[in-house]
What does this fold into?
Amino acid sequence: MKGILLTKPESGFQAAVTDIDEAQLPEGDVTVRVDYSTINYKDGLAIAKGSVVRKWPLVPGIDCAGTVEASSHADFKAGDQIILNGWGVGETHWGGLAQKARLKGDWLIKLPSQFSTRQAMALGTAGYTAMLCVMRLEELGIKKDMGEVLVTGASGGVGSVAIAILAEWGYKVVASTGRLAEADYLKALGAAEVIDRATLSEAGRPLQKERFAAVVDSVGSHTLANACAQTRYGGVVAACGLAQGMDLPGSVAPFILRGVTLAGIDSVMAPKALRSKAWSKLGCNIDAKKLDAMTREIGLAAAIPAATDILAGKVRGRLVVNVNA
It folds into this structure.
């Protein structure tokens, strides 16, 4: 089978498309014939830097969608179509950027009937994470008539899907991006306003003018701190990423003086019931035309340079990887 293999020679590391012996596949009770994978920010870190890889050699790819070829797991049989997101795959366990994957059945969910495997990977972990964020806002009482919702990193995968979902649910969305040339794209997804990320990305005051009822943040660092400082009384900030940095150079002021909730969103180890609910909601609440508009398909070889592009913020929306192309 063909796949991207990350290896670590004496100096540095290498990422290359190569022929891989299926006998090298790791242990698992389900073998999947992969149709599509995708490139997320974490995949970019693995392929371009090797920084999240914990086991060498490794096939990267935290997502895949395809068809079960063989299974000893009670929930899956040959012919079932499945989705995988996270669970350390592409970090400690061989992932989805190859034509086959051997996985634990407990990690998998069945493909919702509304999606093809390609559409599932057009969403991938980014889209599933966006839905987890929006679900959390809703669970914590954020309603569409309470005010604007800020989405940071708006041109990226999480941001693009979050905008589409929030707009579909009737929220007024403000999109923050470093690429103002993408304003038409973001408005087509449903953003009511597009702002320059520079207004959020530098050090700011602990408390600022109240503006946003809620925030979906995939950026972290100063952007997250400023977003919290601009969140209205009783608002909610769903934090799911660290594109700007892992630090949070802010203050407790928004939380203790305005009752703001900072809700952490984890997609990697989320329990199966929660991820199944998120995928079910995606099947009912994502516009197929918008999903297509934010998606570009590439082959395995193109995934390697795409990893560098996604880290540099050059990728708009979602990249689907056809592992058989």
Summary: The chain has a mean pLDDT of 96. The longest strand covers residues 30-38. The chain has two domains: 2-111+294-322, 126-264. The chain has nine helices and 15 strands.
